[in-house]
Design a protein that fits this description.
Layout: H1 4-10, H2 16-43, H3 46-61, H4 66-80, H5 87-113
Helix pairs in contact: 2-3, 2-5, 3-4, 4-5
Length: 114
């Protein structure tokens, strides 16, 4: 769930159009990012997984969603440590919280455009 106060603080100097553009970029990259993460996990390609998880963590941090940030941080850490145990469940948790974030961002975008 987006911490609206922190989100507003983070984007306080941005025009609504820029915030919408940032949200739209996240939307447009979403499927490919998660497809890549899933493939990295399946292939046990920890180098690519570390890169993709770290990148996702940075993007998600912009939206001030502490649960999704924590899931992406843990995935980044597991990739760094080449840890397999529990990674499938963590990915499922990350995907669920990210889907919830997508819905919240969709609602936020509607609020910004109305």
């Amino acid at each position: 769930m987006i911490d609206r106060q922190k989100f507003n603080d983070n984007f306080q100097y941005f025009d609504k159009e820029i915030i919408i553009e940032i949200i739209d970029i996240f939307f447009s990259e979403y499927e490919e990012r998660y497809k890549n993460l899933q493939q990295n996990i399946q292939d046990k390609d920890f180098t690519k997984l570390k890169f993709n998880a770290h990148s996702l963590k940075g993007v998600i941090a912009n939206f001030m969603d502490p649960v999704t940030i924590e899931h992406s941080r843990k995935l980044d850490e597991m990739a760094k440590n080449m840890q397999v145990a529990g990674i499938d469940q963590l990915f499922a948790d990350l995907k669920k919280s990210s889907d919830d974030l997508m819905q919240e961002l969709g609602q936020l975008k509607k609020e910004l455009t109305s």
